[in-house]
Specification:
This protein has four helices and three strands. By secondary structure, it is mainly alpha-helical. The longest helix has about 40 residues. The protein is elongated. The two termini are about 35 Å apart. One of its GO terms (molecular function) is ubiquitin protein ligase activity. Keywords: Metal-binding, Zinc, Zinc-finger.
Length: about 140
């Protein structure tokens, strides 16, 4: 069980991560603006197009990855009550990798399209800040 100090420290880390994410979003917007200006003013298509494509690809992979999943995609996820049955290929005690807690019979769980299961409230909170499965990095849709 986590102590109040542990929870407070985790909240502080989350606040710092969200601040960093917001900063990265602003940087990405500035880079997109720069790239749009570059595309408009670039007469030499060979050099400019290759540079622009490389920068855009890099931005898409590195900067946009921490975007939240769409509300519709989260609401559409399969939700059910855990019956104690172990998922194929997992150990005898099924755990939620978000909170690291054991899934008990009767727990509300959510299954992502990649078939990974989590406590419902844990994965919903996770997907508010990122759009990828914490186990396999399966990408859910984003608004960005």
């Amino acid at each position: 069980m986590l102590s109040a100090d542990d929870v407070h420290q985790m909240e502080d880390v989350l606040d710092r991560l969200l601040s960093l994410r917001d900063s990265m979003i602003r940087t990405c917007a500035n880079m997109r603006s720069f790239l749009d200006t570059l595309a408009q003013n670039n007469g030499d298509i060979d050099d400019g197009a290759l540079t622009e494509a490389a920068v855009r690809e890099s931005l898409e992979e590195a900067v946009l990855s921490p975007m939240p999943a769409t509300r519709a995609s989260v609401e559409a996820l399969e939700k059910f009550v855990f019956d104690g049955e172990v998922q194929r290929g997992s150990s005898s005690d099924q755990r939620c990798v978000v909170c690291l807690g054991k899934m008990l019979s009767g727990d509300q769980v959510t299954c992502l399209p990649c078939s990974h299961m989590f406590h419902g409230h844990c994965i919903e909170q996770w997907l508010r800040y990122g759009h990828v499965c914490p186990l396999c990095r399966f990408k859910l849709p984003t608004d960005y």
